[in-house]
Design goal:
Elements: H1 3-16, H2 19-26, H3 30-44, E1 49-50, E2 57-58, H4 60-87, E3 90-96, H5 101-113, E4 117-123, H6 125-131, E5 139-143, E6 151-154, E7 156-159, E8 186-188, H7 195-207, E9 215-217, H8 221-230, E10 234-237, H9 239-244, E11 248-251, E12 258-265, H10 268-277, H11 279-286
Helix pairs in contact: 1-2, 1-3, 1-4, 2-3, 5-11
Family: Belongs to the LysR transcriptional regulatory family.
GO molecular function: DNA binding; DNA-binding transcription factor activity
Pfam family, one: HTH_1
């Protein structure tokens, strides 16, 4: 027997003084209300209503049981409300600042379809690492090496003019290689200012003879893109970012650089929801979906490379 449902019928009938009206108020047929109250009477071993007259009246036993029945019904309603609030518990997630706002909005919508109340907090890679260890967020999309990543985004160099070859060799950027060639810098945006991306690029650059100042970290993605748009300098970025800034993109011949991302969360359920239920939606936010890698490498946004020298 469902004691809560039976008590709900008992409270409704007693409040309306009628099985018909009480059942209607409880949203159940009169026959169901009668069966539930009869089962409750059998369960507790006493009659709740005096049915000897046309009017339905509580027996002394029913009067004594009614306050407890009301408390049980109220508690059940309160538990249902608590459960709904718990299902709508906001899951605050620290995400990369480079995620486009529209795609983050799509992620939030997708999460709500799965009854996940997502709140996103854009932050840099170091800040995300710190936030996921505090109560401020429940989880974070953190930067990790490629080998342990759930999502991967290939990186290359972007310039305002097309590249003459399908890949870029760092040694071609050495100063003094040609008298007319200025010393060109590689600008690292803050999102890629992490050891597993910055250090290999710096080491290889030094090994092929680049000056230390030729590999530098920019203050922001916007500043780095502005420099790349207004000078011969190169922006380290994904193909998708290059297209957003109308820059020409080309992969590096070496080292092979990929952004890697994974989820860090304090609660296993949050980890599972982000890494499985919302996996594809997060991939789109990060630019890690397969569709963006189909363009011919080295081609500018909107068409093939002209082959002009950089």
């Amino acid at each position: 027997m469902d004691v809560v449902a039976a008590c709900r019928a008992f409270v409704a009938v007693s409040g309306h003084g009628s099985f018909t009206s009480g059942a209607a108020a409880a949203g159940i047929p009169q026959s169901v209300a009668s069966r539930r109250i009869a089962a409750l009477e059998e369960h507790f071993g006493g009659r709740l209503f005096d049915r000897s007259s046309r009017a339905v009246r509580l027996t002394p036993f029913g009067q004594d049981m009614l306050p407890s029945a009301r408390r049980l019904v109220d508690l059940a309603d309160a538990m249902a409300d608590d459960a709904e609030r718990a299902r709508l518990r906001p899951l605050r997630v620290a995400v990369p600042e480079i995620c486009p706002p529209r795609r983050l909005a799509d992620l939030v919508v997708a999460a709500r379809r799965q009854r996940i109340h997502l709140e996103v907090r854009p932050a840099g890679p170091q800040q995300r690492e710190e936030l996921c260890r505090t109560p401020e967020v429940g989880a974070a999309i953190v930067a990790v090496p490629e080998a342990t990543a759930a999502w991967r985004v290939p990186l290359g160099l972007a310039a305002r003019t097309p590249f003459p070859a399908p890949t870029v060799f760092l040694e071609t950027l050495r100063s003094g290689r040609a008298r007319t060639q200025a010393r060109r810098r590689i600008l690292i945006q803050p999102e890629d200012d992490v050891a597993h991306l910055r250090d290999p690029l710096t080491r290889v650059g030094q090994a092929v003879g680049l000056a230390p100042a030729q590999v530098t970290v920019a203050l922001s993605l916007v500043d780095a893109a502005a420099v790349a748009l207004g000078s011969p300098d190169l922006l380290l970025c994904s193909r998708e970012q290059a297209e957003d800034f109308a820059l020409h993109w080309c992969p590096l011949a070496g080292p092979r650089l990929l952004r890697g991302y994974d989820v860090a969360a304090g609660v296993r359920e949050d980890l599972d929801q982000l890494s499985t239920v919302l996996y594809a939606d997060i991939a789109r936010c990060l630019g890690a979906s397969d569709g963006h890698e189909s363009r011919t490498e080295g081609s500018p946004p909107g068409g093939p490379s002209t082959g002009e020298p950089t």
